[in-house]
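Students often ask what a holo structure prediction actually looks like on paper. The answer is less mysterious than it sounds. You provide the chain, you provide the ligand, and the output is a string of discrete structure tokens encoding the 3D arrangement of the protein together with coenzyme A.
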Amino acid sequence: MSGPQLSPLRVNPKTQEPYLQLPAPHDNIIITPARMSDADDIIRCLNDFAIYKWLEGPPFPYLPSHADEWLATVTSESNTILEELGVAAKNNPDGPPILVSSCPVRILREVLEDGSEVFLGDLGTPRCCYPEYNPGFEKEKLHEKNLSRPVGDPEIDWCIGYYLASSHHGRGIMSVALGTIVNDWMVPRMGAKTIKGEAYSDNWGSRKVFEKNGFKLLKTVEFEGGRHLKNGQIKEGMCVYVYKS
Ligand SMILES: CC(C)(COP(=O)(O)OP(=O)(O)OC[C@H]1O[C@@H](n2cnc3c(N)ncnc32)[C@H](O)[C@@H]1OP(=O)(O)O)[C@@H](O)C(=O)NCCC(=O)NCCS
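The corresponding structure tokens follow.
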């Protein structure tokens, strides 16, 4: 498949897998769908203190069963979007690109000179679940309402979840990857108008990635008594950033 319905995704001629390529100087990095074979790399990353200490969502410790379950979910989501794009390409090959429910590519990979690929991390684009709120009625209501909005609804609050292998931290990779996903896919192909970025107040790396991509600080929420994460960390507060397209 090619043409406007898939744009700006490219297709690997050997594997037929779609991908986004980061701009230079990071053009040796691509973003592809997840693969079931990513399990070991994901388990390694999500049990790495440099990564899990900042994350509240994934289970801890992160087990092979968690990776298999997650991969089954996200590969199925990605396949569904690619099928929708395939149908649109067949029915309306030159027509305006359709809006879809999420981004079919999310795994960052470094392409080495011999063509082999190294898993670098994950960048997901889910609907916002308002992590700055403590569990309760208000948070559930907001989330439920956000999930109920139809594809393309400009009122949807999107959010970002990401991590990068610690071997590659501090090289500017996630800043460029976030800009690519936002500008090349979320805004034009998901119709995203409001994208939120939430980071614990002391996660300066993540906060800078948002700021470098034009996300503005909306509010800082202090957790009364600290928020105790299942990975043993205690967090004092969270910064909520917002990007408006
Ligand atoms: C957050 C994360 C994705 C950033 O990815 P990255 O590719 O290392 O980030 P970049 O190299 O693009 O850095 C962006 C900016 O933040 C700065 N930065 C990166 N890590 C930092 C840190 N630990 N402390 C302070 N600044 C940091 C960089 O110097 C850069 O600033 P500059 O452009 O002014 O030099 C990565 O550190 C990571 O995976 N962390 C663990 C998981 C996580 O925190 N996920 C986000 C949860 S909200």
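The pocket of coenzyme A is lined by residues 51, 54-55, 162-164, 169-175, 199, 203-206, 208-209, 212 (CB under 6 Å).
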